[in-house]
From TrEMBL:
Keyword Transmembrane found: no
Family: Belongs to the Gfa family.
Keyword Metal-binding: yes
Gene source species: Acinetobacter qingfengensis
Classification via PROSITE patterns: CENP_V_GFA (PS51891)
Protein name from the UniProt record: S-(Hydroxymethyl)glutathione synthase
Pfam families: GFA
Length: 139
């Protein structure tokens, strides 16, 4: 599967784990996107850069980094610094996937009260997310 930025200067290739879509309500995602970011998980080690001259990586925390095109500003992916986990901006996919399933919201305790989704989703707090990634790094 491929994804790209708005201007086409950054192109990625990867394999999806499944068709489940997640929404992140953390303060960084909301500030970066002026809303939530909706992502889809990819298989570990499958991320390849087809066109990367304008790919920038931002170290957004002690354990995660974000990527964007430095020409048009499109958010492309978030990954752990050890690259054991990565998700892609679902709206950057080149191909339309008909059976996407919006099934999880993370950092739900950071979500402002003025919006909500109608979907019934699994909801993880900031503490839940940190525990999840800490448990994965201990494996």
């Amino acid at each position: 599967m491929k994804a790209q930025c708005v201007c086409g200067e950054t192109i990625l290739e990867f394999d999806l784990i499944d068709h489940n879509v997640n929404a992140c309500h953390c303060s960084i995602c909301r500030r970066q996107t002026s809303g939530v970011i909706m992502t889809i998980n990819i298989k570990q080690g499958s991320l390849k850069f087809i066109k990367q001259d304008h790919l920038s990586i931002y170290n957004s925390s002690s354990w995660g980094e974000r990527s964007f095109c430095n020409v048009c500003g499109t958010n492309l992916f978030w990954r752990t610094k050890d690259q054991s986990y990565c998700n892609i901006n679902v709206f950057s996919l080149d191909q339309t996937i008909k059976d996407l399933n919006f099934n999880m919201e993370i950092f739900i305790d950071n979500k402002p009260n003025f919006y909500s989704f109608n979907n019934s989703t699994k909801k993880l707090t900031e503490e839940d997310v940190i525990k999840l990634f800490n448990a994965q790094s201990e494996d």
